[in-house]
């Protein structure tokens, strides 16, 4: 496969036409794809050279009796004629502002949200045949975002249109992560995670209709999308699923591995009972039936209301839980990543230099008028450990954590807490997954302030280009190897996609080397380099400690 280094290929091709002679740029026919259950008409983007299918259904509506039930197959819509796939589908109900909706605009009852939201957007070269496939799983804390913010056109064009991209949506907030043992019989626990698995099974069945190769699928997720992939790695590592191959390659950007705990624990039960009572349903065995018969608007409002209601031991309201035997997330994901089996995959993953910076309060740093700053700093960090994580006040684990992150190593206590947070939630999960394979590559995104999600500027620049400084050479240093992985199962197979002085990506598992993505301070030219053992990626000692704590305490 020949890949050209250009994101301007379609525009350059158009510029060669002799417009002065009065010739007309030919228009492409609208592409039509007939699936066994529906026919979709998309549009051809003449600037990018791609066919764009917006809103292809991969599962039935999740409203009513399908609430908190595993995604159901798409209904037969062949009698509806050709369906319009040129406009964005409804997004899954958003529990908070974000993505396309600002805080000032956000309304939990906004019309752009619908429970009928299990759709994919597909970007494909015309007449594609047997091309590699990228499946993107968006982030957003499992409570906001949709497929609308994530247009993969720049990276596809950068590959000379050599792969197909599928952008999925999945249930969010209470609709995807309100958990109760009552849902177990319908496989409705962790619905947002199992939706992602359902979309990957849809790709296996139907991507060939769009010219994709089901045997060369790369899954990529950022933040909670990356966390979803960690949970998929765990779930698909179960013995009964090891014969089901849903992907070949994995890319994770700062995957969000929050505390779990058993789905029948008091934490999840309290949340479910309070939510149920607020919906005017009885808190008993009839609760789920009542909630399934409650109006969408009431549930949207409650999903937003409870998004800000957290309990001790968890940093956010809506998170996956451990289902146990018979479920989809059978095991503790941290334990499986550390000690169990996961599907064989080529894995490229990383985190940001300051992933934890915006996740913890600046109040962690005591005012300078305290007589014993060190003791007060320890007390405040210890409080964080029992508020955001399932640690017990005064326990040996809390003391050991304070010892592993001595105040003297950090600029202040906020920086200390940020490092601890990003190890637990973002960095260590990456390292545990990479340790599982010899075909593994790590990065550390260190551009600008490098806080969480800044890398979206290069992953999806159409929507997020303002998050980091513009640098075409850094785009090549980061996205070039990713395109290489998607199309050839390795990041170093197309060096022409990278700057001339860009280092090859080292295999992580040999000596723990990784690529630092950075730019020069004044000219924004790629200054990426190879590093080893920086604490910002989670040291071996610290990550081993957190693995054991999570395993011992089942989170």
Summary keywords:
555 residues, alpha/beta, Rossmann fold, 31% helix, disordered N terminus, Carboxylesterase_B_AS, signal, hydrolase activity, Carboxylesterase_B_CS
* Helix content bin: 25-40%
Radius of gyration: 24 Å
Order of strands across the widest beta sheet?
A: 3-4-6-8-7-9-10-11-12-13-14
Structural class: alpha/beta
Largest sheet: 11 strands, mixed
Mean pLDDT: 94
Give the beta-strand count.
Answer: 14
Q: Ranges with pLDDT <50 over ≥5 residues? A: 1-23
Q: Report the end-to-end length measured between terminal Cα atoms.
A: 44 Å
By CATH, the topology of the domain at 38-344 is Rossmann fold
Describe the 3D structure.
By secondary structure, this protein is α/β, with parallel strands linked by helices. It has a domain at 38-344: Alpha/Beta hydrolase fold, catalytic domain (Rossmann fold), CATH 3.40.50. Helices cover 31% and strands 14% of the residues. The chain has 17 helices and 14 strands. The strands form two sheets. The chain has an eleven-stranded mixed sheet, with helices on both faces. It has a three-stranded mixed sheet with strand order 1-2-5, with no helix packed on it. Strand 1 (32-35) and strand 2 (38-41) form a beta hairpin. Helix 5 (224-235) crosses helix 9 (333-339) and helix 12 packs across helix 17 (540-552). The protein is globular, with a radius of gyration of 24 Å. Mean pLDDT is 94; it is low at 1-23.
